[in-house]
Amino acid sequence: MTELTITVLDAVPMAVLELWGDPAPAAKRLAKALGHALPAAGRAAGPVMRLGPTTWLIEGDHAALAKPLGEGGALTEVGGGYARIRIAGAGWRELLMEGGLFDAESPDFATDCVATTLIEHVTVTLRVESDAACLAYVPASHAGDLLHFWRQARVLVAA
Amino acid sequence: MSGVAREGATIGFTFDGTRYLARPGETLAAALLANGVRLVGRSFKYHRPRGILTAGVEEPNALVTVGRGGRTEPNTRATDLFVYEGLEARSQNRWPGLAFDLGAVFGLASKALPAGFYYKTFFGHARTWLKYEAVIRRAAGLGPAPTEADPDHFSQRALFADVAVIGGGRAGLLAAREALRAGKRVVLIEQDAVLGGGLLRDPREIDGQGSAGWIATVEAELRSGGARILTRTTATGHWDDNMLCLAQKLVEPGQVPGHGFAQRMWHLRAGEVVYATGLIERPIPFANNDRPGVMLSRAVRTYIRRFGVVPGRRVVVATTNDDAYETARALRDAGAEVVAVLDTRPAPAGADSGFAVLNDSVPQAAKGGRRGVKGLSAVIAGAEQHFAADLIAVSGGFSPAVHLHSQAGGALDWDEGARAYKAGAARQAARTVGSAGDPPASGAFRPVGNAKASFLDFQNDVTLADIDLAWREGYRSVEHVKRYTTLGMATDQGKTSNLPALEALAHAGGMTVPEAGITTFRPPYTPVTMGAMAGAAQGEHAVPTRRPALYAVHAAKDPIWLNAGYWKRPRAYPRGSETLAQAGLREARSVRQLVGLTDVSTLAKFEVNGPDAARFLERICATTVAKLAIGRGRYTIMLREDGLVFDDGTVWRLGENRYLLTSSTSGASRMATHISYVRNHLMPEAKVSVICVQEHYAAIAVAGPKSVAVMEQLTGEAPPRHMSASQPTIAGVPVHLLAASFSGERAFEVHFDARHAAAVWQAIDDAVAAAGGCAYGLEAMELLRIEKGHLVIGPDIDGRLSADDLGMGRMLNPAGGYIGHSTLHRPAFAEPGRKQLVGLESVNGDSIPEGAMLVPHLGARAEGHVTGAVRRVLGPGHIALAHLADGRARHGQEIYARSLTRGHTTRVRVVAPHFYDPAGERYRD
C-alpha cells in the first residue's frame, strides 16, 4: 500500500437535503434541476449521495436547488462539519477494512456506491470514485484522529 | 551451546538462559524435545514438574514466558510457538529454578490443599483477604504480566466471506475447494503455520498424490481462485449472525515484528461457517500421569513424523482406542522400542497389530520424577504389572473440537461409542465436517490409580480426588463442581480435562455422562493477547479524540486541556506560573467584571425546518415553543418518557418555519438518537427536517458587562436583547447572534460555519482583549455557572430528577403534548422524600468536597449529595449545588457534607440554588 495516497480535499459547500410527505413531486423537480434523478439507496449520482430513506448529501454549490425543492423539504448547510478525504491507490479497499465493519472489498461496492459505516469508532460516509479511489466524508472533529490512524495503518500494512 | 547436534538445526534460541538450536518450522516443544529437554514447567498449585503433553494449542503443561520488556508474553504454549532466531523462552512459576523449585513444598502438602482450600481457609473480614492474596499470588500462578508498555502495533480488520472454513486439514481443504469451485468468496482459517492438519502427522495418498503434494495443489488452487488463506490464525469466538473473531499471529510471540503489525484481530462475517476443527485427544487418569514423559499418543506421532523428533526410546503405549496403534508403528519405524501396548478394551482389540498387546489393561501409576518417567505400573486383568519406560504414550479417546459450534448456539450430541460430545443441530448457517463430526470409537474404563495423584486438569492441578470431594461435599451441578475445583478454568479452558472430569463426576454420582451435564464453551478458544483486543486503541488513540474547530487556536495558547467525553477542551489558559485554580479564578473574574470569550462549539445543535417544526419541537421540548416570535429564543428542558429530565438547552426561532435547537455537549449523541426516534417513529408523517449541525456550527460565547459593547463594535449594530437573536456578520462571516447566558452575566452565543472558526475567534478575541477581557475555559465556566445556579447534564441533571425536583416545574408547557408529560402524574412524583435541587453554603468558609454525601449528623444515612462545588468568584466563601431529600423545605438547615474518599467533612447551610443575581438583573441592559 505504499502507493496509497491520503489527501484532505479543500472545503466546499455541503448540504443535507431532506424530503418530507410525498417525496415524488419534489424529487421530480429536483431531478430536472440536477439533470438526473436523486440516487437510490446506497448510490450516488453527480454531486448527490443518498444518506438515508429521506435524506441526501449534496456536495458543492446547491443554491439552485432551493427553488425546485419548494415546500417539499429542506436544505440544511452542513459543510462546516465535514472533512473530505480522498484515499487513492490500489490498496484503498484494504485500508478501509482496517478498523472497519463494512465490506469495502466486496466487488459490489463499485463506482458511485455509497455507504455510511464506522471506522475506528467514527461514523464515515464512503463514496467510491473509481476502482482506484474512494472519498471519505468524516466528521470534522474526528478527522485528525482518523487521518493519523489511516496514515499509520498505511505504513504498517505495507510493511 | 547445549543440547543435541542435529542436521539442519540452525536457529538459535534460549530456554532458561541455555542456548539451543532448532530446525526451521519446529515448535519450541519439538525443539526442546529434540535437545533432550523434558522438564519445561511447574504446575500452578503444587509446583509439580511438568513436561510436554501435547503437540497443539490444547497444551496445559508446557507454558513459557517469551520475549523481553513490553514485548514479554507469559503463558505461551511451547507447542504453539514456532522457534525463531533469538527466541528467549523462560519457564514459569518456579523459584529459584526449574529443576530445584522451593515451591514444590506445596506438592508435599497437597493433602492439606484440596479443592475448595481457599474457601475453607481464607475467611474472615474482607480486609484480611488482602493479606492472604499477597502470599497466594507469590506461591501460585502463571507467568507475570509485563509491566512495560507493549511497543508493537496491533491491527483489527473487517473480513467478509460467503464461506468460512475453520481448519486447514484434509476436510477443511476439501470444503474450501468445493466452495471456491461453486463461485463463493472463501476464507480458510488455520491455527498452524502451515496447512495440512492431521495429514502432517499421518501422511497418505490422496487423489494419486502424496500428502505434501496434495496440500500444495489444493492451496495453489485456492490462492489462484482468490480464496483468502489465514495461517497462524485461530477462530477464537463465534457469535450471532455468523460473526467470528479471528486472532492472527503475524509474528511469533515475543518476536520483533519489524515495521508491521504484530497481530491482527479479524472481525469476520460469513454466510456459512464450516467447522473442520478436528479432534482433541484425552489423557488417561492414573497416578503421576502429569510427569514429564507422559505424552498424548498423537502428540508422540506428530513429533516423530512431522518434526523428526523421537520423544523416547523405550515406550509404553496405553490406549482406549485403535488410533494409538498408529503411534506404536511410528515409534517402531523411528527405532524406538515399544515395550507394550496396554489396551483398556478386552481382546481381541489390537490382536492383529503386531505388537505385544495387553488387553483389559489400565495404567495405575507412573514412576519417576522431574527428570521424566522411568516406568509404569498397570492393572492387567486384575493383576499388577510393571514396565520400565522413558515415555508413556496415552490415548483416552478423542473429543471433537465443538467449542465454536457450541458458542454459536449449536446443540451437542453424546456419542456413546466415542464417549464424547459431537456437534448436533447448528443454530446458525454452520456445519461440521471431517473427524470433528465423526470421532473414533473409544473404550470405557475405570481409573485404578491413586485418585489424589491422578490428574484431570493438569494446569490447575485438579485430580480425580478433587472431583470426588466436591461430590461428597454436596456439589451436584457440573457448573458448581467446576468453580469449586477450578476444573477447566485455566488458560487451556479444560480442553484435555473436560471429558475425563465429566466421566469422573458421572461415576461419583452414579450417572451417565450426559446426565452429569456439561459446562459452557466460552470464547476465546485459545488465549488472545490484550494487544489484539485493543487494536489501535492504545496510547493517544485509547479513546477517540474529538477536536473542535477551534482546537488549533486554543493549542496556540497552550491551555490546560480537559478531556470532556471525547472532546478536547481548554480548561484554563494560565499565564506565567498560574495554577489551574488561579487561572480559572482570574478568567471568571474577568467575566464578572469585564468580558470574556469561550469556545462552546461542542454544544449539540439541530436545525429544525418545515411547516411542522414547532409541533415537532413541542414534542421534544417540555416548554412551550409554538408561541416564540421570530428572532426569539428560550431555555428548554427535555424529558424521557418516564417524566424525568434528561437534557436541557435553548430553542431559537430563526425564521417562519426554521428553528435552532441546542442541547448539552455531554448528551449530544443521546439527543440525536432521541430526535431520530421521535422523527422517524412517533412523527413520521410530519413535514419537518431535523438535521444535526453540531459540527457545522462553531460557537463562541461572549459574556460579561462589556459584552454588549464588544458585540456592537464587532457587528456594527445594536446586539439583540436577552433571549433574542439576530444575523449580523463578524469578520465578514455571517453569524447567528443569540443573546443567552450561562455565566449569569449579559452574554451572547455566536454560531457560524465552522470553516471560519479561526477568523471569527480572532476578531472577537481582539475586541475582548481591547475591552480588558480574556478567553476563559471550563474551569471558569464552572465557577460562574454554579454561582449562578445553572445546571449541567450529568452531575446536576442526572436522569433521576423531575422538572419539579429541579425547581423547573413552572416552566412545563401547560398544554402538555411533550414526551414525558403523561407520566408526570404518577404518585411517586409527589411523594415526600424526593431529592430536590438545593444550594449549599459553607458554614465555616471551608471548601465543600464535590460528590460528598449529605448527612444531618455524622454517622447518619446519606440524604443527598453534592453535585458541584466551587469558591465564590468575587466574594469569600464556598458554595455548592446538591441533591437533597425534601431539599426545598430545608433551606436554612445546617448539615454535613462528608466525603470519605476525600477524607473531608464540612458543615454546610442549605439555601436556594442561586448565589448570584437571583433576579436576573444583570441580563438586562
Which helices and strands appear, and what pairs or packs with what?
The complex is a heterodimer of chains A (159) and B (925).
Chain A: E1 5-8, E2 14-19, H1 24-34, E3 44-45, E4 48-52, E5 55-59, H2 66-69, E6 73-77, E7 82-88, H3 92-97, E8 114-119, E9 122-130, E10 133-139, H4 140-158
Chain B: E1 11-15, E2 18-22, H1 28-34, E3 41-42, E4 49-50, E5 63-66, E6 73-77, E7 87-90, H2 105-108, H3 117-121, H4 126-139, E8 154-166, H5 170-181, E9 186-189, H6 211-224, E10 228-230, E11 233-239, E12 243-249, E13 263-275, E14 279-281, E15 294-296, H7 297-305, E16 314-319, H8 323-333, E17 337-343, E18 357-358, E19 361-369, E20 372-380, E21 383-388, E22 391-395, E23 398-400, H9 403-407, E24 412-415, E25 420-423, E26 430-432, E27 455-457, E28 462-463, H10 464-472, H11 478-485, H12 498-509, H13 513-516, H14 530-534, H15 551-556, E29 560-564, E30 567-572, H16 580-593, E31 596-599, E32 604-609, H17 613-620, E33 633-639, E34 645-655, E35 658-663, H18 668-682, E36 689-692, E37 697-703, H19 707-715, E38 725-726, E39 729-730, E40 733-734, E41 736-738, E42 747-753, H20 757-770, E43 774-775, H21 778-788, E44 835-842, E45 853-855, E46 864-871, E47 878-885, E48 894-899, E49 904-911
Parallel strand pairs in B: 1-7, 8-9, 8-13, 9-10, 13-26, 15-22, 16-17, 16-22, 17-18, 31-43
Antiparallel strand pairs in B: 1-2, 3-4, 5-6, 5-7, 11-12, 12-13, 14-23, 19-20, 20-21, 24-25, 27-28, 29-30, 31-37, 32-35, 32-36, 33-34, 34-35, 37-42, 38-41, 39-40, 41-42, 44-47, 44-49, 45-46, 45-48, 46-47, 48-49
Characteristics:
heterodimer; A: Gyrase A, domain 2; Alpha-Beta Plaits; 5-stranded antiparallel sheet; 4 helices; B: 925 residues; alpha+beta; Ubiquitin-like (UB roll); FAD/NAD(P)-binding domain; 6 domains; 7-stranded mixed sheet; 6-stranded mixed sheet; 21 helices; 21% helix; 28% strand; elongated
